Amino acid sequence: MRRLFSSSYFHFYAALAIGLLVIAAYSNTFHSSFQFDDQPQIIQNGLIRSLSTGMLKQTRGVTYLSFAVNYALGGLDVTGYHVVNLSIHIINSLLAYWLLLSTFKLLDKDDAWARRIAFFSALIFALHPIQTQAVTYIIQRMESLSSLFYIAALLFFARAAVSDSGPKRLILYGLVGLSYLLGFYSKETTFTVPAVVLLYDFFFVSKGSVKGLASRWPLYAILAALFVFFTMNTVMPLGGFGDVSKESTVAETISPRPDASVPVALPKEESAGFKVTYISPKEYLLTQFNVVVYYLTLLAVPLNQNLDYDFPRATGLFQAPVARKGAALNIPMLPPIASLFIILFIIGLGIYLYFKSMKEAGERGGAEKRLISFFILWFFIILSPTSSFIPIIDVIYEHRLYLPSLGFFTVFVILADMFLKAVFRPKSASNNPLISGE
């Protein structure tokens, strides 16, 4: 097995396996029809009827431009849209593989170990059922396309970190900024790129050195300028982050009271932001504590997946929300305070592992602890725009897990690898790096 992961052709084999398995997994989706938000955003959207760069000025204009290309090539033939969505997902899976390899290289991890962890993490990312919505629900190309640019920004930064050429490094910094720009105009939840780049730098490049962070001030100046521009020009006017743009607000069939037995139709209103009347910022935040825990259970055991969850709204910190009869939920609803403790414990564990890894720098297990710490924080930071106190009418959507899930899968694979080595490695080989694979 070690010989396979050490092969000079392994990257080719890995890319081929991921691509073919993704195509096989989604081979029955190419003729799936337009659904829900596909109607107003694609079928009835006059903006995509012509290839005009003017649409780039719109919220999520990059994604709309991709829909316009689809329309120009095949009209409303749904197959072409699915082909593009699936291609983006394959590219993202391969970029995830390459990002993990680049990250492990910064920690001087053994090549065979790095390839093994990167491959299985990317493979689970590619094939896990939680990705179905982001791949097959055509409008959620917004999620996958923005994730493509998100990963690209980190890859460009990782390449810049190991570059000895000043001009090349500046070009790569510019590409980080461009990726941030394109990602944000694919979907605004890419807003968190600066935070993850900074965290990545602190964990793997500067390795805790503030001076090292300061030496990359040109990059952070670019990201800060874009962050301020996006905040003032888009996030504040929209009032937050949503799953549909302001140009396509929709009427929802929802219950204005959590204890109502029959849903009622509410008038058309904003889909996200503080103008939402269905749920208050406080209620949304309390509900998100339970949503995040539910997300974790879906990643661990993807049962009862749903495009449109009937998820109960929380109204009090210590009061468990009551799900309506017939709601297909995998776990009983906890009081939000219990879910908050679970979230804080996981985040606290991530922070503890970081400091532990700094003390164990160069020792066995130190790099793994730092990686687990980073990807725990990765999960919560990338998820934060839609799981905060800024209300969104739909409190839960599986496609919001698309990129955050990479952190969960990477942590899972690292822990599984550590467990299997501890169980099956002979005691006599435990200190032999050639046998143990360290």
Helices and strands, with pairings:
Elements (H helix, E strand, L loop, with lengths): L1 H5 L3 H16 L12 H6 L17 H14 L3 H29 L4 H17 L4 H5 L4 H21 L4 H19 L8 H13 L4 H5 L2 H22 L14 E2 L9 E2 L15 H20 L35 H24 L6 H18 L20 H21 L8 H4 L2
Antiparallel strand pairs: 1-2
Helix pairs in contact: 2-5, 2-6, 4-5, 5-6, 5-8, 6-16, 8-9, 8-10, 9-12, 10-15, 13-14, 14-15, 15-16
Brief overview:
By secondary structure, the chain is mainly α. 59% of the residues lie in helices and 1% in strands.
Largest sheet: spatial strand order: 1-2
Helix content: 55-70%
- Specify Rg, calculated over alpha carbons: 22 Å
User: What fraction of the residues are assigned to beta strands by DSSP?
Assistant: under 5%
Main sheet makeup: 2 strands, antiparallel
Judged by helices, strands and strand pairing, the structural class is mainly alpha
Find the count of extended strands (DSSP E, 2+ residues).
2
The number of distinct helices, counting runs of at least 4 residues, comes to 17
**SSE run:** HHHHHHHHHHHHEEHHHHH
* Average of pLDDT: 88
Spans of at least 5 consecutive residues with low confidence: 246-267, 433-438
Shape by Cα distribution:
globular
How far the N terminus sits from the C terminus, by CA atoms, comes to 14 Å
